[in-house]
Structure formats: structure tokens, C-alpha cells
Specification:
The complex is a heterodimer of chains A (415) and B (191).
Chain A (H helix, E strand, L loop, with lengths): L4 E8 L3 H12 L4 E4 L6 H5 L32 H14 L4 E2 L4 E6 L4 E5 L2 E10 L21 E3 L14 E5 L3 H12 L4 E5 L3 E2 L3 E2 L2 E2 H7 L13 H5 L4 E2 L11 H6 L3 E4 L1 E5 L2 E4 L3 H25 L23 E3 L3 E6 L33 E3 L16 H19 L4
Chain B lengths: L18 H13 L7 E2 L2 E6 L2 E11 L2 E13 L14 H23 L4 E11 L18 E10 L3 H13 L2 H7 L10
Antiparallel strand pairs in B: 1-3, 2-3, 3-4, 5-6
Classes of the chains: A alpha/beta (415), B alpha+beta (191).
């Protein structure tokens, strides 16, 4: 058995969060290592579907010390372009990444954290968890009540329409992943049923500007976690119904229906060969339309307050979601596959379970765990609304690095 | 930061809802989930024909047995059109009473939380039913409602969008709406 290697900080995860953290630590001359179970930007290479592009325009991909330097700021990167972006970043400051290293266990004492990996053990004075928000798909319990003949696929394993078994596809969940996958499947000629629960709708562009330009301008992206009335709820908001395409087209339920998808309510039960959908569909659609209206009102107010009305296109609101005749039940025999676009719940099997709440979520205050010297990055609204975005993790990493350096200073006397 | 603070831009409103108490209960039940476990009860006694009387008095929750400040009884029956005595609303109509009451309570609570003073709130509920279901005429027709429509008329100092938002939020957090819109397990036993 090899003796543990000693280091000031272990960063777990070599994606944008881990690399941003590494940059912040490098700038502060803090000795550290980044442990990555695959290779840099692993999930961007191995857990994204073929046609995936970011929801956010390219200019919103800034990392600490790494401005956007491409020639298409308003375009949307593919998954492999994101991986290349992160790889270039890693090389630019020679981030100390150890690839193909999986963490097995972390034990924490007052003075140090012992990180056991499949390539030996590290003893560190601080640990930063940067494994991302999308490591584990969440499949709701209703899956058990569906008939046996169905294939089940999560967005992490979905690649393209040709991969799916014959027959119709039931896409459960109409947030970004569900809507994009449903859209792609419809365009490929598949029969799609899209089960719609809680969702957040926004147009791709408003008055000629990308919606993220607006969200940035009105200050939404920088909203702090300690400034919103219900942070728990804000952290659980579904991903925006958006797609990144060169044409900057809208992707919403009306578009999905126009492409031939059958819209139904939230999947709430299965009995024999039938699936049951919630009667709350109209309310889900009305709520999303209202929420969209409120943000667009904020955008219009911002435009007027900053004298931009002359330069921008006239306000033109997206059409309300057409609800149609509600479908409460469906025969699942013509369906071959269920795509569970029902979100993610990261798990931490290598962490002390006492660090998790009763729903398995990490307990933290703006990224600072209750255990001294332990931090997390990259979770939704960790410190800011944009925390889980490519462009959002940098400021969080900077804040956490400052706190971490303070921790190292206070523990310096204890060897 | 406590969520019982009102924002400084919003004047206090009085719709008769003690929002602070509700938010306090929410905090309390977040800390102690066992306090949130409630059991509602109703006891029914057949009177005659299709006429029954159901009484609600006790329930359990917040860690103990609770009692309404008086027992409440409701008669249910079928109308004369059904060759019955019409001693009370039909049971399906009682469900509409529950739905309307729950959604409207929600409107008052959400409006108060959002600083909107209500002057009047009226809900009209309509539920369609094809009797071929309960009469066993057509097995493709369900026993219950095919659709339910609720229309709200609200007089308040708020924009239409704000009122729509309040009504939308009320549905999101309504128990009766959930029971009716989504499947619920019902187990019935005898003796």
C-alpha cells in the first residue's frame, strides 16, 4: 500500500467547475491537484447526444482568465466544441489534472481530508467537489408502473433518433433536454408523445437580442443566492425551454405540436398497458406563459430605462401555449421507448452520508460545506443564478477560492 | 433573512389570511417533517335512499389529534330528476365545492403573500359528465367528470396578468386540485 500523497487542495472533477477552481488556485499559488475520472470535460465527450449544442451563446463561455476568443460569439457550441474549449483552457495554464482517477471515499478529520482513489490516496487540507449537477439522471417512481416491453433511455445515454427501438417515443419532461429530444425525434419522423409538467418558457430572441443577453442585462444571471426569497425553489427550477441553433429558432410547446408531437400532461401513473397524465396540463402551460411574460416585461422596462427602444425591434410577445383537448391517458403498446428527461440528482456515494440532507442533496451555504475545508461548485444557483452555466462558475470559483485560502491560513498552524 | 418580512415596496394588505403564521408553519414543518403528516377524516351515515349525512369533526396532524371547533355535517343526495328526494347536493357537486373552496383559499393566500388587496373573488365551476358511464350504458365513458372549468371574477388592485398569476399559483399548491387532477389510491374495506 502506497503512502498518501500530501497536498493543500484536491479538486474533484475536471470539467468547467474544476478547471475554473484550478485556475483560481493557481493564481493564488495554492498547491492542488484535479482528479478526473475520465479525461478533461469527460461528460461533454461521453454523456451528450450527437446534435447537442449549448443553450447559451458562445460569448457566455468565459472562464477565469479565459475570455471567448472564437469568431462566432452569437453562435452555440456543440458538445465537442465545449470539450475542446475546456481542453484548451486546461492546457493554457497547465492545470494539474490527473485523468482516469476515480474517487472512492473521502474521510474528513478536523485537520485534513483523506481522499481515497483508484490510483492511491491524497491527504488534503481542503477539498472542492466539482463533479457537476448532471451526474445521475433522476427517474421518477412512476417508471416502475409502466409495462415491461418499453426501453428506457435517459438524456445521458441518448445519442440520436436511429439509436431508439422501433415504435413511438414517450418523452417525459418538457424542459430543455426533453423538448430538444422530442423535437429531433419528430423531425426524424418518429411518433412522439411529450409529457409536460412544470417548465420555463422563453423565446430564443426578444426584440432581436438573444434571451441570455437580456437575462444578463437585467441582472438576473448575477442574482445572488442570499437575495432571492425561496432559494430552495429557485435551485429546483427546470432548465429553460431553449435550443441553440444557427437560425436562433424558438423551441416551445407550440413548436413541438407543430412538428407533430402529441402534448400530454405530466406522467402520473401507469396501469396495465395505459399511462395516465395529469389534468394540470392547462395550468402548467398558463403558468409558464405568465412567467415568460413577467421576464419580458422586465426586459421592456430595462430597454425603456436605458433608452434602447429606438435601437431594438418592437416588442412582440410569443403566442400563448395552445392547450387543445386534454389527453389524460394513452395506450403504451405502440410506444417502444420512454425518454426520461426528468432532470438529474447528483449522488455522492464516496462522501459521508451525513453531509447530505434527507433527499440526498449536499448541504452547503453558497458552496461552503459545514465540514471545514470542504466546498462544492457547479450546482444550480449555488451562489448566483448562473452558477451551473459555463459562464457562471468562474465568479463562484473566485469566491470559494477566497474562502478556501482563508481556511488554509487558519489551519496553517496545525500540522 | 426571514421570509416573513414584507418587501419594503409592498404595503401590508388584509385579506384575512395570516400569511406569517402559514410561513412559520412551513418553516417548522421543514425542520420536523413528521409534523406535516396529516390525516383527514369523515364519517358517513346512510339516512334513506340516496341520502346520506357525512360529519367532519376530528383530524390528526402537527404531531397530535385535532378537533374542529364544532362538528360539520353535510347531506348528500340525488336530485328529483333521478327519482330521488334532493335532500342535499350530489356527491360530485360536493367535489366541486371542495375544489372551489380550495382554489379560492389559495387565491386569498397567494394574493396576500404578493401584496394584493382583494375586494371580491367569485368562482364559477362547471363540470361535464356523461351519465352513460355511471349508468353502465357505455364502458368507454368514464363515471366521473370529463372536464371541469373554473372561471374566476376578481376585483382587486392588480393587473390581469397579476391576477392570472395568483390563480395559476393557487392551482399549483391546491390539495383539492391535485386530488381531482391526478390519480389517488382509494382502498375500501367492509366489516
Amino acid at each position: 500500500m502506497t503512502t498518501p500523497r500530501t497536498i493543500d487542495v484536491v479538486v474533484i472533477g475536471g470539467g468547467q467547475a474544476g478547471l475554473a477552481m484550478s485556475h483560481c488556485l493557481t493564481r493564488r499559488s495554492v498547491d492542488h491537484v484535479v482528479l478526473e475520472r475520465g479525461h478533461t470535460a469527460n461528460s461533454w465527450r461521453t454523456q451528450r447526444w450527437d446534435s447537442l449544442r449549448l443553450l447559451t451563446p458562445n460569448w457566455l463561455s468565459r472562464l477565469p482568465g479565459w475570455p471567448y476568443r472564437g469568431d462566432d460569439p452569437d453562435g452555440y457550441m456543440t458538445a465537442l466544441e465545449v470539450a475542446a474549449h475546456l481542453d484548451d483552457y486546461r492546457r493554457a495554464f497547465d492545470a494539474p489534472v490527473r485523468p482516469a482517477t476515480s474517487v472512492l471515499n473521502i474521510e474528513s478529520s478536523e485537520s485534513a481530508h483523506t481522499v481515497a482513489t483508484d490510483d492511491g490516496t491524497w491527504r488534503a487540507r481542503a477539498v472542492v467537489l466539482a463533479t457537476g449537477a448532471c451526474s445521475d439522471p433522476h427517474i421518477p417512481a412512476v417508471a416502475r408502473d409502466l409495462p415491461d416491453h418499453l426501453d428506457h433511455v435517459s438524456p445521458i445515454h441518448y445519442r440520436n433518433p436511429g439509436q431508439l427501438a422501433d415504435g413511438g417515443v414517450l418523452v417525459v419532461g418538457a424542459s430543455a433536454s426533453g423538448l430538444q429530444i422530442a423535437d429531433e425525434l419528430s423531425r426524424a419522423g418518429r411518433e412522439v408523445t411529450l409529457a409536460v409538467g412544470d417548465h420555463v418558457r422563453l423565446p430564443r430572441t426578444y426584440r432581436g437580442m438573444d434571451i441570455h443577453w437580456w437575462m444578463d442585462a437585467v441582472g438576473q444571471l448575477d442574482e445572488r443566492y442570499d437575495e432571492v426569497p425561496d432559494i430552495g425553489r429557485a435551485r429546483r427550477l427546470p432548465s429553460l425551454q431553449l435550443v441553440g441553433t444557427p437560425e436562433r429558432r424558438d423551441l416551445d410547446l407550440n413548436a413541438a405540436a407543430a412538428n407533430g408531437a402529441r402534448l400530454v400532461g405530466r406522467l402520473v401513473g401507469g396501469s396495465g398497458h395505459r399511462a395516465q397524465f395529469s389534468g394540470s396540463f392547462a395550468n402548467m402551460c398558463a403558468s409558464a406563459d405568465l412567467k415568460q411574460g413577467r421576464l419580458l416585461d422586465l426586459c421592456d422596462e430595462y430597454a425603456t430605462a436605458h433608452g434602447l427602444d429606438g435601437e431594438l425591434a418592437e416588442p412582440s410577445r410569443p403566442a400563448p401555449t395552445a392547450v387543445g383537448t386534454p389527453v389524460l391517458e394513452a395506450d403504451l403498446r405502440p410506444i417502444g421507448t420512454v425518454v426520461w428527461a426528468t432532470g438529474f440528482r447528483p449522488t455522492y456515494p464516496w462522501l459521508d452520508p451525513r453531509l447530505l440532507d434527507r433527499k440526498g442533496r449536499l448541504v452547503h451555504d453558497g458552496g461552503v460545506l459545514p465540514v471545514p475545508g470542504m466546498y462544492v461548485l457547479g450546482l444550480p444557483f449555488l451562489r448566483r443564478r448562473k452558477s451551473s452555466f459555463l459562464d457562471g462558475v468562474g465568479p463562484d470559483a473566485d469566491d470559494v477560492a477566497t474562502h478556501l485560502v482563508g481556511h488554509l491560513a487558519t489551519t496553517a498552524c496545525r500540522v | 433573512m426571514t421570509i416573513t418580512e414584507n418587501s419594503t415596496e409592498t404595503p401590508a394588505v388584509d385579506n384575512g389570511v395570516n400569511v406569517e403564521a402559514l410561513l412559520g408553519a412551513r418553516d417548522h414543518m421543514t425542520e420536523m417533517p413528521e409534523l406535516a403528516q396529516f390525516t383527514w377524516r369523515a364519517d358517513c351515515e346512510w339516512v334513506n335512499g340516496t341520502h346520506s349525512r357525512t360529519t367532519v369533526e376530528k383530524f390528526s396532524g402537527a404531531g397530535g389529534e385535532q378537533t374542529h371547533r364544532q362538528p360539520y355535517s353535510a347531506d348528500t343526495d340525488h336530485p328529483e330528476l333521478f327519482a330521488s328526494a334532493d335532500n342535499g347536493p350530489t356527491p360530485p357537486e360536493m367535489l366541486l365545492i371542495g375544489l372551489a373552496g380550495c382554489l379560492t383559499a389559495g387565491v386569498a393566500s397567494v394574493a396576500t403573500h404578493r401584496g394584493v388587496q382583494l375586494r371580491s373573488v367569485k368562482a364559477s365551476v362547471e363540470a361535464n359528465m356523461d351519465l352513460a358511464g355511471i349508468l353502465g350504458i357505455d364502458s368507454d365513458v368514464r363515471n366521473g367528470f370529463s372536464t371541469i372549468q373554473v372561471h374566476y371574477d376578481i376585483d382587486a388592485d392588480a393587473t390581469k396578468a397579476e391576477l392570472e398569476g395568483i390563480v395559476a399559483q393557487s392551482q399549483k399548491r391546491s390539495a383539492a386540485f391535485d386530488v381531482i387532477a391526478n390519480p389517488t389510491s382509494i382502498v375500501v374495506s367492509v366489516n
